[in-house]
Amino acid sequence: MSWSERQRQMLQAMGLTVWAPPAPLRDEPPAMAAAEPARAPRVPAPVPPPAPTPVPMEEASAVATLGWPELRAAVAGCRACALCDARTQTVFGVGHERAHWMIVGEAPGEQEDRAGEPFVGPAGQLLDDMLRALALTRQPGPPEKQVYIANTLKCRPPRNRNPEPAELARCEPFLKRQIALVQPRVILAMGRFAIQQILRSDEAVGRLRGRVHSYQGVPVVVTYHPAYLLRQPADKAKAWDDLCLAASLLTAP
Ligand code: URA
Question: Whole-prediction pTM value?
Answer without folding.
Answer: 0.79
